[in-house]
Amino acid sequence: xxxxxxxxxxxxxxxxxxxxxxxxxxxxxxxxxxxxxxxxxxxxxxxxxxxxxxxxxxxxxxxxxxxxxxxxxxxxxxxxxxxxxxxxxxxxxxxxxxxxxxxxxxxxxxxxxxxxxxxxxxxxxxxxxxxxxxxxxxxxxxxxxxxxxxxxxxxxxxxxxxxxxxxxxxxxxxxxxxxxxxxxxxxxxxxxxxxxxxxxxxxxxxxxxxxxxxxxxxxxxxxxxxxxxxxxxxxxxxxxxxxxxxxxxxxxxxxxx
Length: 257
Prior knowledge:
By secondary structure, the chain is mainly α. It is 35% helix and 2% strand. It has ten helices and two strands.
């Protein structure tokens, strides 16, 4: 009982010792607050000027065109990165993530957000945007345009250029002309079969088995003859053997009563 009497007093003493250690020295120490005045410096400002030529981390923008898309105050039309399949794949991936909601997968400005009532997005296939320099798309992603916010926080400068290159590819895909394709020599299948040592039947029209499923039954005309992998007609599938009729014999006994 005597021990129980002293437990509250001991607890209070421990609590007082703990509270004595909670001091506000670090909080109350003299220090400068941003944008507050001070008498320590002659000019009365607590914020000091940066040392000459100070550059923030990752902000050394020596190539101004790469970071702005502008040349002498005008939008440039060059791509400051090597045009590679990897760059186009990256541009497509980033475009699908950040741009399709408004501009759609094909860039016609009819994305799902627009279909739900948002302001119409830019259609990349109009004459104005089809003739716009590549730097225009980079600048819009950097600074925003109209109701479109900027995407400088979501897309690095390199990704913005990748998206701009992909937008140009979308424009070409919807307005391509035969003259845009490079010169090429088409070879018929017979020539390819000869060069590769394949049988001449390699070039024959493909035949599909009669069991194939068709969306349009009319398309299966003349396409029911099975062929082997090498182009030769395959053997006809074996038909199920039908039961033979019983041989003629004595008349079976009647089962009627």
